Amino acid sequence: MTATKPVATARPLPSLPSVYRSRASVELKEFFRQRESVVFTLMLPVLLLVVFGAVLDFDLGNGVTFTQYFMAGIIAAGILGASLQNMAISIATERSDGTLKSLAGTPMPRSAYFVGKVVQVLAVTLAIIAILLLIGVVFYDIDLPSGADWLTFAWVAGLGAAGCTLLGIALSSLAKNGRSASATVTPFALLLQFISGVFFQFSEIPTWMQTVAALFPLKWMAQGLRAVFLPDVMAASEPAGTWELGRTALVLAAWCVVGLLLCVATFRWQDRGSS
């Protein structure tokens, strides 16, 4: 009798949820291993809060300190950094160094790459918010939201992060490489912060700058978060005299749609001209 050889069985492919978890873990490890990314994205808002909180600790009226007002803006700016800036720069870098091309050639579903990026943005955003709130409460006596204000906090931060993440992914395709992405996106983000009520009281910004700021999501994130951190009497100093939470939700949701459409239309897995 001749012995029969055992038939090799193919190893089953991992399930989609496990691939998503694996990719998310890789994205988080990659982010926290890059010292520059951690310092710029995670620690810069903290440093700004410490500096501005120490230097500009004056009363705005109605018992509201500038630090209380600034908390809303710096959280919005932190979300912008963790989503739009982080995505635009990191994806452009990965496209330029061939990482995206390599990933596109593997059996990994391409959706896993984006899921990993979204998880990274979510984790970094939550870390930024938690650290800023902790420092604000411990060192600057910031009054935290209460009751339904936490729900407003959640949807403003969630919609803002989603819209900015999609916009950052789309902007990554405009840059030739990671270095040019940083040189392009960072000044743009800083300009938005200056005209969107992050470093100054929004009512003190020239009207034409307010109009320009209203075209972008950062202004609406900051305004929505001011509704969370400030008493209702402070709404009178807003351009419309109210917090405009309904309009804030519509604008941020619209940016999610626009960002998604731009991603679909512009995203590339390799640089232009690459074979």
TrEMBL record:
Domain called ABC transmembrane type-2: residue spans: 36-270
Lineage, uppermost ranks: Bacteria, Bacillati, Actinomycetota, Actinomycetes, Geodermatophilales
GO cellular component, one term: ATP-binding cassette (ABC) transporter complex
Organism this protein belongs to: Blastococcus haudaquaticus
Pfam families according to UniProt: ABC2_membrane (PF01061)
Membrane topology: Multi-pass membrane protein
GO BP annotations, alphabetical order: response to antibiotic
Compartment(s) of residence: Cell membrane; Membrane
Record key words, sorted: Antibiotic resistance, Cell membrane, Membrane, Transmembrane, Transmembrane helix, Transport
Main localization category: membrane
GO molecular function: ABC-type transporter activity
InterPro entries per record: ABC2_TM, ABC2_TM_bact-type, ABC_2_transport, Nod_factor_ABC_transporter
Transmembrane segments: 38-56, 68-93, 114-140, 152-171, 183-202, 249-269
Alphabetized PROSITE patterns for the sequence: ABC_TM2
Record flagged with keyword Lipid biosynthesis: no
Keyword Protease recorded: no
Family, similarity comment: Belongs to the ABC-2 integral membrane protein family.
Descriptive protein name: Transport permease protein
